[in-house]
Write a structure and sequence with these properties.
mainly alpha, two-stranded antiparallel ribbon, 7% strand, 115 residues
Amino acid sequence: MHSPDFANARPAHPTKLLLIAQSHLLFTLTVFSLFIHNKSLFASFGFDPRLATTSPQPILIGFMLFQLVLDPLDTVLKFGLNALTRRYEYQAGMSAAVLPGYELTGSRRVCGQAG
């Protein structure tokens, strides 16, 4: 394990990112379950609204329509998650720079102990 990994483990950044990713997945699946039976969604894209409630239901069509609606919001959420990830990586790098036994040489971190 190299020094940024030690620094990253202290403030629980990986746990926070995992919880955010799981929350995003839960949000997406919950909203999908609400959209799949929405007659107005099917009608607004030119499909027969009865497709939303008939059996067998066209899940693939509903999923594609859902993605068309969700993509703009999902792009903003992914941008925010990417910015947070970069912030955490920067903080881990700064924390790793002050760990005892490690020194910065150029762009690489080198362990101060002889191998």
